[in-house]
User: What shape does this take?
Amino acid sequence: MLMLDSIAIDFVGTNLGSGSRSYNLNFCNELSFFQLKKNIKIFICKNYYSHLNYSIKKNRKIEIILKPNFLSIGIIRLLWIQFILPFELKYLGIKKLYSSLNFSPVIAKFLGIKVVLCCHSNLPWVYFNLMPGNLVRNFFVKMLMELSIYYCDILIVNSYYAKKELINILRLNKKKIYVVYLGISRIFFSKKNKKIHNFNYKKKYILSVISCVRYHNIINILKAFNLLNNDLNIRLILVLQVLDKSYFLDIIRFIENNSLKNKITILTNLTFDKLPELYRKAELYVFTSYCEVFGLTSLEAMSQKTPVLISNRSALPEINGKAAMYFNPDNVEEIYKQFKKVLLNKKLQFNLIQNGNKIFKKYNNKKNIQKTLNIIDSLK
Assistant: This one.
Protein backbone atom coordinates (compact mmCIF):
# COMPACT_ATOMS: atom_id res chain seq x y z
CA MET A 1 0.00 0.00 0.00
CA LEU A 2 1.31 3.44 -0.94
CA MET A 3 2.10 5.62 2.08
CA LEU A 4 2.84 9.25 1.23
CA ASP A 5 5.30 11.28 3.30
CA SER A 6 6.83 8.20 4.89
CA ILE A 7 10.35 6.95 5.39
CA ALA A 8 11.89 3.49 5.60
CA ILE A 9 14.50 2.18 8.00
CA ASP A 10 16.52 -0.90 7.12
CA PHE A 11 17.26 -2.83 10.31
CA VAL A 12 17.73 -6.20 8.62
CA GLY A 13 20.93 -7.39 10.25
CA THR A 14 22.81 -10.15 11.96
CA ASN A 15 21.18 -12.15 14.74
CA LEU A 16 24.53 -12.55 16.50
CA GLY A 17 25.00 -10.70 19.79
CA SER A 18 26.96 -7.94 18.11
CA GLY A 19 27.04 -4.17 18.41
CA SER A 20 25.03 -3.82 15.19
CA ARG A 21 22.20 -5.95 16.55
CA SER A 22 22.21 -3.93 19.78
CA TYR A 23 22.08 -0.71 17.76
CA ASN A 24 19.08 -1.92 15.74
CA LEU A 25 17.08 -3.08 18.75
CA ASN A 26 17.97 -0.04 20.89
CA PHE A 27 16.92 2.30 18.09
CA CYS A 28 13.63 0.46 17.54
CA ASN A 29 12.66 0.29 21.19
CA GLU A 30 13.64 3.90 21.86
CA LEU A 31 11.62 5.00 18.82
CA SER A 32 8.45 3.79 20.52
CA PHE A 33 8.75 6.69 23.00
CA PHE A 34 8.70 9.36 20.26
CA GLN A 35 5.72 11.38 19.09
CA LEU A 36 6.30 10.70 15.41
CA LYS A 37 5.07 13.15 12.77
CA LYS A 38 5.71 10.87 9.81
CA ASN A 39 4.98 7.26 9.01
CA ILE A 40 7.92 4.90 9.32
CA LYS A 41 8.32 1.48 7.79
CA ILE A 42 10.91 -0.66 9.57
CA PHE A 43 12.40 -3.69 7.81
CA ILE A 44 13.65 -6.33 10.28
CA CYS A 45 14.15 -10.08 10.39
CA LYS A 46 11.60 -12.21 12.21
CA ASN A 47 14.13 -13.20 14.88
CA TYR A 48 14.23 -9.57 16.07
CA TYR A 49 10.50 -9.31 16.61
CA SER A 50 10.29 -10.91 20.06
CA HIS A 51 12.91 -8.40 21.32
CA LEU A 52 10.82 -5.37 20.36
CA ASN A 53 8.78 -3.74 23.10
CA TYR A 54 4.99 -3.71 23.06
CA SER A 55 4.72 0.03 22.31
CA ILE A 56 6.49 -0.07 18.96
CA LYS A 57 4.36 -2.99 17.81
CA LYS A 58 1.18 -0.98 18.51
CA ASN A 59 2.39 2.43 17.30
CA ARG A 60 0.14 3.51 14.41
CA LYS A 61 2.91 5.58 12.88
CA ILE A 62 5.22 2.57 12.65
CA GLU A 63 4.80 -0.43 10.40
CA ILE A 64 7.04 -3.42 11.04
CA ILE A 65 7.85 -5.30 7.84
CA LEU A 66 9.13 -8.75 8.79
CA LYS A 67 11.71 -10.42 6.60
CA PRO A 68 12.88 -14.07 6.65
CA ASN A 69 15.70 -14.91 9.05
CA PHE A 70 18.02 -16.12 6.29
CA LEU A 71 18.56 -12.46 5.36
CA SER A 72 20.65 -12.15 8.53
CA ILE A 73 23.36 -14.16 6.73
CA GLY A 74 25.97 -11.64 5.58
CA ILE A 75 26.29 -12.20 1.84
CA ILE A 76 22.55 -12.82 1.39
CA ARG A 77 21.75 -9.61 3.27
CA LEU A 78 24.13 -7.61 1.07
CA LEU A 79 22.52 -8.98 -2.10
CA TRP A 80 19.04 -8.21 -0.75
CA ILE A 81 20.04 -4.63 0.07
CA GLN A 82 21.49 -4.00 -3.37
CA PHE A 83 19.03 -5.77 -5.69
CA ILE A 84 15.68 -6.23 -3.93
CA LEU A 85 15.20 -3.57 -1.25
CA PRO A 86 15.39 -0.53 -3.59
CA PHE A 87 12.63 -1.91 -5.87
CA GLU A 88 10.48 -2.77 -2.87
CA LEU A 89 10.90 0.81 -1.65
CA LYS A 90 9.97 2.11 -5.09
CA TYR A 91 6.84 -0.07 -5.13
CA LEU A 92 5.84 1.22 -1.69
CA GLY A 93 6.33 4.82 -2.73
CA ILE A 94 9.12 5.38 -0.19
CA LYS A 95 11.40 8.29 -1.08
CA LYS A 96 13.71 8.31 1.96
CA LEU A 97 15.70 5.44 3.42
CA TYR A 98 17.78 5.27 6.57
CA SER A 99 20.28 2.45 6.14
CA SER A 100 21.84 1.85 9.54
CA LEU A 101 24.57 -0.75 9.10
CA ASN A 102 27.40 0.34 6.79
CA PHE A 103 25.68 -0.58 3.50
CA SER A 104 22.95 1.00 1.39
CA PRO A 105 21.45 0.24 -2.05
CA VAL A 106 23.66 1.92 -4.65
CA ILE A 107 20.91 2.04 -7.29
CA ALA A 108 18.52 3.88 -4.94
CA LYS A 109 19.83 7.18 -6.31
CA PHE A 110 18.74 6.19 -9.84
CA LEU A 111 15.26 5.29 -8.55
CA GLY A 112 14.71 8.69 -6.95
CA ILE A 113 15.20 7.44 -3.37
CA LYS A 114 17.23 9.58 -0.98
CA VAL A 115 19.53 7.63 1.36
CA VAL A 116 20.98 8.42 4.76
CA LEU A 117 23.70 5.89 5.55
CA CYS A 118 25.19 5.23 8.98
CA CYS A 119 28.72 3.83 8.91
CA HIS A 120 29.83 2.18 12.16
CA SER A 121 33.31 1.07 11.11
CA ASN A 122 36.41 2.44 9.42
CA LEU A 123 38.14 -0.92 9.71
CA PRO A 124 38.32 -1.84 5.97
CA TRP A 125 40.43 1.24 5.25
CA VAL A 126 42.56 1.23 8.39
CA TYR A 127 43.20 -2.42 9.32
CA PHE A 128 42.03 -4.40 6.28
CA ASN A 129 44.43 -7.24 7.18
CA LEU A 130 42.75 -7.69 10.58
CA MET A 131 39.19 -8.09 9.28
CA PRO A 132 37.56 -11.46 10.04
CA GLY A 133 36.81 -13.66 7.03
CA ASN A 134 38.67 -14.46 3.82
CA LEU A 135 40.41 -11.98 1.54
CA VAL A 136 37.84 -12.17 -1.28
CA ARG A 137 34.90 -11.59 1.05
CA ASN A 138 36.66 -8.70 2.76
CA PHE A 139 37.52 -7.04 -0.54
CA PHE A 140 33.85 -7.34 -1.59
CA VAL A 141 32.71 -5.84 1.74
CA LYS A 142 35.14 -2.94 1.42
CA MET A 143 34.05 -2.23 -2.15
CA LEU A 144 30.35 -2.22 -1.24
CA MET A 145 30.96 0.02 1.77
CA GLU A 146 32.83 2.52 -0.40
CA LEU A 147 30.11 2.52 -3.05
CA SER A 148 27.46 2.94 -0.35
CA ILE A 149 29.34 5.93 1.07
CA TYR A 150 29.90 7.58 -2.31
CA TYR A 151 26.31 7.13 -3.50
CA CYS A 152 24.42 7.99 -0.29
CA ASP A 153 23.03 11.51 0.10
CA ILE A 154 24.08 11.93 3.74
CA LEU A 155 26.61 9.92 5.75
CA ILE A 156 26.31 9.57 9.53
CA VAL A 157 29.33 8.53 11.58
CA ASN A 158 29.66 8.01 15.34
CA SER A 159 32.56 10.33 16.21
CA TYR A 160 34.54 13.31 14.96
CA TYR A 161 37.56 11.04 14.78
CA ALA A 162 35.69 8.76 12.35
CA LYS A 163 34.60 11.75 10.27
CA LYS A 164 38.12 13.12 9.96
CA GLU A 165 39.56 9.69 9.13
CA LEU A 166 37.04 9.00 6.36
CA ILE A 167 37.46 12.46 4.86
CA ASN A 168 41.22 11.93 4.67
CA ILE A 169 41.04 8.38 3.29
CA LEU A 170 38.11 8.66 0.86
CA ARG A 171 38.42 12.37 0.01
CA LEU A 172 34.81 13.05 1.01
CA ASN A 173 33.03 16.38 1.18
CA LYS A 174 32.82 17.18 4.89
CA LYS A 175 29.42 18.83 4.39
CA LYS A 176 27.99 15.42 3.51
CA ILE A 177 29.02 13.89 6.86
CA TYR A 178 27.19 14.32 10.17
CA VAL A 179 28.35 13.07 13.56
CA VAL A 180 25.75 11.36 15.73
CA TYR A 181 27.01 9.70 18.89
CA LEU A 182 25.60 6.42 20.16
CA GLY A 183 23.66 6.07 23.40
CA ILE A 184 23.25 3.54 26.18
CA SER A 185 20.24 1.23 26.20
CA ARG A 186 17.52 1.77 28.79
CA ILE A 187 18.27 -1.69 30.15
CA PHE A 188 21.32 -0.25 31.95
CA PHE A 189 19.02 1.97 34.01
CA SER A 190 16.60 -0.80 34.93
CA LYS A 191 16.42 -2.38 38.39
CA LYS A 192 15.26 -5.71 36.94
CA ASN A 193 18.60 -6.94 35.61
CA LYS A 194 19.16 -10.67 35.45
CA LYS A 195 22.03 -12.72 36.82
CA ILE A 196 23.99 -15.48 35.14
CA HIS A 197 23.13 -18.90 36.52
CA ASN A 198 25.95 -20.50 38.57
CA PHE A 199 28.23 -17.47 38.20
CA ASN A 200 30.13 -16.36 41.33
CA TYR A 201 29.75 -12.57 41.48
CA LYS A 202 31.48 -12.37 44.87
CA LYS A 203 34.85 -13.57 43.62
CA LYS A 204 36.74 -10.54 42.25
CA TYR A 205 37.14 -10.23 38.50
CA ILE A 206 38.26 -7.99 35.63
CA LEU A 207 35.74 -7.82 32.79
CA SER A 208 35.97 -7.34 29.03
CA VAL A 209 32.92 -7.40 26.75
CA ILE A 210 34.45 -7.69 23.33
CA SER A 211 33.97 -9.26 19.89
CA CYS A 212 36.50 -11.97 19.13
CA VAL A 213 38.38 -10.34 16.24
CA ARG A 214 42.08 -9.66 15.79
CA TYR A 215 41.80 -5.87 15.80
CA HIS A 216 40.46 -6.09 19.35
CA ASN A 217 43.86 -7.36 20.43
CA ILE A 218 42.54 -9.81 23.05
CA ILE A 219 45.78 -11.81 23.27
CA ASN A 220 47.51 -8.79 24.82
CA ILE A 221 44.84 -8.67 27.54
CA LEU A 222 45.69 -12.30 28.28
CA LYS A 223 49.43 -11.62 28.33
CA ALA A 224 49.02 -8.67 30.71
CA PHE A 225 46.66 -10.68 32.91
CA ASN A 226 49.18 -13.53 33.00
CA LEU A 227 51.70 -11.10 34.52
CA LEU A 228 49.07 -9.79 36.92
CA ASN A 229 48.16 -13.33 37.93
CA ASN A 230 51.50 -13.60 39.73
CA ASP A 231 50.67 -10.54 41.88
CA LEU A 232 46.94 -10.50 42.58
CA ASN A 233 44.24 -13.06 43.23
CA ILE A 234 41.68 -12.03 40.64
CA ARG A 235 39.84 -13.56 37.67
CA LEU A 236 39.41 -12.40 34.10
CA ILE A 237 35.96 -12.69 32.52
CA LEU A 238 35.72 -12.41 28.73
CA VAL A 239 32.27 -11.95 27.21
CA LEU A 240 32.94 -12.86 23.59
CA GLN A 241 31.01 -12.79 20.36
CA VAL A 242 33.09 -15.15 18.22
CA LEU A 243 33.42 -13.59 14.76
CA ASP A 244 36.88 -14.99 13.98
CA LYS A 245 37.07 -18.71 14.83
CA SER A 246 40.80 -19.05 14.16
CA TYR A 247 41.55 -16.19 16.53
CA PHE A 248 39.28 -17.77 19.13
CA LEU A 249 41.37 -20.95 18.90
CA ASP A 250 44.52 -18.83 19.43
CA ILE A 251 42.94 -17.48 22.61
CA ILE A 252 42.04 -20.94 23.88
CA ARG A 253 45.58 -22.20 23.15
CA PHE A 254 47.14 -19.29 25.03
CA ILE A 255 44.95 -19.96 28.07
CA GLU A 256 45.82 -23.67 28.05
CA ASN A 257 49.55 -23.16 27.41
CA ASN A 258 49.83 -20.72 30.32
CA SER A 259 47.72 -22.78 32.75
CA LEU A 260 45.08 -20.06 33.10
CA LYS A 261 41.94 -22.20 32.74
CA ASN A 262 41.06 -21.72 36.41
CA LYS A 263 41.61 -17.97 36.22
CA ILE A 264 39.90 -17.03 32.95
CA THR A 265 36.23 -17.60 32.14
CA ILE A 266 34.88 -17.13 28.61
CA LEU A 267 31.15 -16.45 28.23
CA THR A 268 29.64 -16.62 24.73
CA ASN A 269 26.13 -15.93 23.46
CA LEU A 270 25.28 -14.02 26.64
CA THR A 271 21.91 -12.28 26.47
CA PHE A 272 21.98 -8.49 26.70
CA ASP A 273 19.89 -8.34 29.89
CA LYS A 274 22.63 -10.14 31.87
CA LEU A 275 25.32 -7.56 31.09
CA PRO A 276 24.42 -4.79 33.60
CA GLU A 277 24.93 -6.99 36.66
CA LEU A 278 28.16 -8.36 35.20
CA TYR A 279 29.50 -4.82 34.69
CA ARG A 280 28.31 -3.71 38.14
CA LYS A 281 30.15 -6.40 40.07
CA ALA A 282 33.44 -6.11 38.16
CA GLU A 283 36.50 -4.55 39.79
CA LEU A 284 37.63 -3.13 36.47
CA TYR A 285 36.56 -3.01 32.83
CA VAL A 286 39.21 -3.35 30.09
CA PHE A 287 39.01 -2.84 26.31
CA THR A 288 42.02 -3.16 23.97
CA SER A 289 40.76 -2.32 20.48
CA TYR A 290 42.94 -0.82 17.74
CA CYS A 291 40.05 0.52 15.68
CA GLU A 292 36.83 1.98 17.09
CA VAL A 293 34.62 4.77 15.77
CA PHE A 294 32.84 4.93 19.13
CA GLY A 295 33.15 2.01 21.58
CA LEU A 296 29.92 1.75 23.57
CA THR A 297 30.88 -0.92 26.12
CA SER A 298 33.13 1.40 28.14
CA LEU A 299 30.16 3.73 28.67
CA GLU A 300 27.99 0.78 29.67
CA ALA A 301 30.61 -0.08 32.30
CA MET A 302 30.67 3.53 33.54
CA SER A 303 26.89 3.51 33.88
CA GLN A 304 27.27 0.64 36.38
CA LYS A 305 29.98 2.49 38.37
CA THR A 306 32.87 0.36 37.16
CA PRO A 307 36.36 1.86 36.56
CA VAL A 308 37.45 1.73 32.92
CA LEU A 309 40.88 0.93 31.46
CA ILE A 310 41.01 1.34 27.70
CA SER A 311 43.14 1.57 24.58
CA ASN A 312 44.42 5.02 23.56
CA ARG A 313 43.66 4.38 19.88
CA SER A 314 41.14 5.77 17.37
CA ALA A 315 37.98 7.43 18.79
CA LEU A 316 38.22 6.00 22.30
CA PRO A 317 39.88 9.05 23.93
CA GLU A 318 37.31 11.35 22.28
CA ILE A 319 34.39 9.37 23.69
CA ASN A 320 35.72 8.49 27.15
CA GLY A 321 37.63 11.66 27.99
CA LYS A 322 38.96 11.83 31.56
CA ALA A 323 36.67 9.03 32.71
CA ALA A 324 39.11 6.27 31.74
CA MET A 325 42.73 5.24 32.15
CA TYR A 326 44.53 4.59 28.87
CA PHE A 327 47.28 2.34 27.53
CA ASN A 328 49.10 1.49 24.32
CA PRO A 329 47.39 -1.76 23.18
CA ASP A 330 50.68 -3.03 21.74
CA ASN A 331 52.52 -2.66 25.05
CA VAL A 332 51.77 -5.63 27.32
CA GLU A 333 53.94 -4.28 30.14
CA GLU A 334 52.02 -1.00 30.10
CA ILE A 335 48.64 -2.78 30.20
CA TYR A 336 49.89 -4.85 33.15
CA LYS A 337 51.08 -1.76 35.04
CA GLN A 338 47.79 0.04 34.40
CA PHE A 339 45.92 -3.03 35.67
CA LYS A 340 47.82 -2.85 38.96
CA LYS A 341 47.58 0.92 39.20
CA VAL A 342 43.79 0.95 38.99
CA LEU A 343 43.15 -2.19 41.03
CA LEU A 344 45.35 -1.09 43.95
CA ASN A 345 44.48 2.61 44.07
CA LYS A 346 41.08 3.23 45.70
CA LYS A 347 41.27 6.98 45.19
CA LEU A 348 41.91 6.52 41.47
CA GLN A 349 38.99 4.10 41.25
CA PHE A 350 36.74 6.65 42.96
CA ASN A 351 37.80 9.44 40.58
CA LEU A 352 37.26 7.25 37.51
CA ILE A 353 33.80 6.28 38.73
CA GLN A 354 32.88 9.92 39.46
CA ASN A 355 34.12 11.10 36.06
CA GLY A 356 32.45 8.16 34.36
CA ASN A 357 29.14 9.07 35.96
CA LYS A 358 29.33 12.44 34.21
CA ILE A 359 30.63 11.18 30.89
CA PHE A 360 28.15 8.40 30.10
CA LYS A 361 25.19 10.75 30.67
CA LYS A 362 26.37 12.86 27.72
CA TYR A 363 25.48 10.05 25.34
CA ASN A 364 21.71 10.20 25.47
CA ASN A 365 20.03 7.61 23.27
CA LYS A 366 16.82 9.59 22.86
CA LYS A 367 18.67 12.78 21.88
CA ASN A 368 20.88 10.95 19.40
CA ILE A 369 17.97 9.16 17.73
CA GLN A 370 16.10 12.46 17.48
CA LYS A 371 19.15 13.95 15.79
CA THR A 372 19.17 11.06 13.31
CA LEU A 373 15.48 11.58 12.52
CA ASN A 374 16.08 15.30 12.02
CA ILE A 375 18.89 14.53 9.55
CA ILE A 376 16.64 12.16 7.59
CA ASP A 377 13.88 14.77 7.60
CA SER A 378 16.28 17.43 6.26
CA LEU A 379 16.59 15.59 2.94
CA LYS A 380 14.45 17.26 0.28
Notes: The CA atoms of residues 186 and 365 lie 8 Å apart.
